[in-house]
Design brief:
This protein has 511 residues and is an alpha+beta fold. The strands form six sheets. A four-stranded antiparallel beta sheet has the order 1-4-9-8, with no helix packed on it. A four-stranded mixed beta sheet has the order 2-3-10-7, with no helix packed on it. Strands 11-14-15 form a three-stranded antiparallel beta sheet, with helices on both faces. It is globular and about 80 Å long. The mean pLDDT is 88. InterPro entries: SET_dom, SET_dom_sf. This is Cytochrome c lysine N-methyltransferase 1. It comes from Kluyveromyces marxianus (Yeast).
């Protein structure tokens, strides 16, 4: 990696402060990565400054859609570029690929095709440009352990035990890429290049603002690979740097925030990838679980093997969730040593909805499966006190059962019923299963994720056994605003069939 860093600095007009170095780093258990460091003794002459410019990277030293557009619109007879344009155009114009077309995915496809051509006999002499060098020496030499990376340690365990946490939009896009590349380059196996480049790009790409015109206050945001800056590691607790854009020339600038830098000679430079840490998102996009003293969210997806067999009062809960378009997730809040369920969101009411009690008879459920409608109908009591079956959406059912002040007691009874009859049984099932798993490597991303899940389940089990609070509102009612608002992760393959094409497109666009 040292060779790559030196080459980039020598061949691109990047301005680097003498205090900055890039070296191996150990963050959150990842001992194999690199990080950016700053020697504060070399910037003492600017100690009165609140910030110090560590890196200045011009746009021609980045990889984005702007660069790709230039190539696609260029008039060239170079056989390498002509071949690249033809292959990329073939991918972009294929009707079945349209659902996957976004800027990040186009960059991935571009770099994969470029790497294959540049490393083959089709390449023109001396045609290895900046993008090719960066792909070969950085992207292809960095193994990012995203769950979809089948070339990492314990990859088979991800598939076996955490299929519910595998992003299906990612899996599907990789499958489409593999089929396309196999068709365009028959007889060649480029599966590993596809996976390595995809995972590296997804984990390194940054949302970079760009002024519409020099000096303008109007910006557009573009996914961009920014060499050298992409070595900066994440920490919301230790954040001491940030990047910005020079409005005059659109250079990307990394600043060290001296006010938030520790008092020591050599420090590691940390930026924030996201102000809110949802751990499944971090695992799926960056390949690690960050540590933090601030509240974190773990979007916990229930084990499908448990769900498909679980029945409560003749209601198959998994089937109920599918019919009502409820995703079987919990938001688990991690704060210091507390593990609590986020009951301040509507999705929590959705999860406990099938455990709500019949208004007149507690031994009955208010939901019945209607074979004709292929969904669940709700038992309601009209203004005359008579029961009738109606087809309610999940929002209408929640409003009817929990919405009014008079139904607060029903909500509390439902919560206790859910904990007693579902959550306790689920935790025992999952712990019994996962405590028997033997990872191939103690340092694999799978084992780190497994260790986190076991800790969460054991903490919840202990709280339930001691009759302690397990929901955020019960313990911190007045501090609900502290919780970050995070979306659920993209659907897994199991959930995919329950989503419409529009919802799938939304997940692909934001992945």
């Amino acid at each position: 990696m040292d060779h790559a860093i030196t080459w980039i600095l020598e061949n691109k007009s990047i301005i680097k402060h003498d205090a900055l170095t890039i070296d191996k780093s150990a963050v959150d258990g990842d001992a194999g990565g690199y990080g950016i460091f700053a020697d504060l003794s070399l910037i003492d002459d600017r100690k009165d400054e609140r910030k110090v410019e560590l890196l200045r990277i011009p746009r021609d030293a980045t990889i984005s859609m702007a660069m790709i557009r230039e190539i696609l619109t260029s008039d060239t007879r170079d056989k390498t570029l002509t071949s690249l344009k033809d292959h990329l155009a073939a991918f972009l114009t294929e009707e079945s690929h349209q659902i996957y077309i976004n800027e990040t995915n186009i960059i991935v496809v571009f770099l994969i095709i470029k790497a294959i051509i540049s490393n083959s006999e089709m390449s023109s002499p001396g045609s290895k440009d900046f993008a090719s060098f960066y792909t070969d020496e950085v992207l292809l030499k960095t193994l990012v352990p995203l769950p979809v990376n089948k070339y990492q340690e314990d990859s088979h365990n991800w598939e076996q035990y955490y299929a519910e946490y595998m992003s299906f939009p990612q899996q599907q896009f990789i499958e489409v890429l593999e089929k396309f590349i196999q068709k365009r380059f028959p007889g060649e196996d480029h599966s590993k290049e596809i996976i390595l480049i995809y995972c590296s790009v997804i984990s390194r790409i940054l949302e970079i603002p760009e002024a519409v015109e020099p000096g303008s206050d109007d910006y557009v945001v573009n996914p961009t690979l920014v060499p050298l800056l992409d070595f900066a590691n994440h920490s919301n607790d230790k954040k001491n740097a940030y990047f910005d854009v020079d409005r005059n020339n659109n250079d990307i600038v990394l600043y060290l925030d001296l006010e938030n830098s520790p008092e020591s000679k050599l420090i590691q430079v940390f930026i924030s990838y996201s102000p809110f840490e949802e751990l499944v998102h971090f695992e799926q996009i960056y390949g690690f679980l960050p540590n933090s003293k601030k509240p974190q969210i773990f979007c916990y997806r229930f084990d499908e093997n448990f769900m498909k067999h679980y029945v409560y009062k003749d209601v198959n809960v998994s089937k109920f969730y599918r019919c009502m378009n409820i995703r079987p997730y919990l938001e688990v809040v991690l704060k210091d040593d507390d593990v609590l369920l986020n009951d301040c969101i509507m999705e929590f009411a959705e999860i406990i909805l099938p455990f709500s009690q019949h208004i007149k008879r507690s031994d009955l459920t208010p939901f019945n499966y209607n074979e004709d409608l292929k969904t669940y109908t709700s038992t309601i009591v009209n203004e005359n006190g008579l029961e009738k079956q109606v087809n309610l959406t999940k929002e209408e059912a929640i409003e009817y059962i929990f919405g009014d002040q008079d139904e607060t007691e029903n909500y509390e009874r439902t919560l206790k019923e859910w904990i007693l009859h579902f959550l306790k049984e689920y935790i025992n099932f999952r712990l019994s299963k996962m405590l028997q798993v033997k990872p191939d490597s103690e340092t694999s991303s799978f084992n780190i994720f497994l260790t986190k899940e076991l800790w969460i389940l054991q903490k919840l089990k202990a709280s339930i056994d001691k009759n302690q609070h397990i929901t955020w509102y019960e313990k911190f009612a007045e501090r609900s605003s502290e919780l970050p608002d995070v979306p659920f992760p993209p659907p897994c393959r199991i959930d995919y069939e329950n989503l419409s094409r529009t919802e799938i497109q939304e997940y692909i666009d934001t992945d």
